[in-house]
Amino acid sequence: MSAPAASTAIVSAGKKIGFAINPARSLNGSAEIYHDGPADMFIAKAPASTDLASWDGDGEWFKVHEFLSPS
What is this structure's pTM? Predict the structure, then answer.
């Protein structure tokens, strides 16, 4: 099984975005996803008039969510 291809989304300012983990698409076929510790989610705004398919991600990234480790 190969990893899914990267993709981009155009999101207007003020709109909500979501994130989901689909264990059926895990690389090893396992239905269990485990991470012993926190995980952070970051996004960045691409510069105006940038070709998103070739953008290298250079720029200002900011944290939008933190997943805390299980207690």
Answer: 0.52
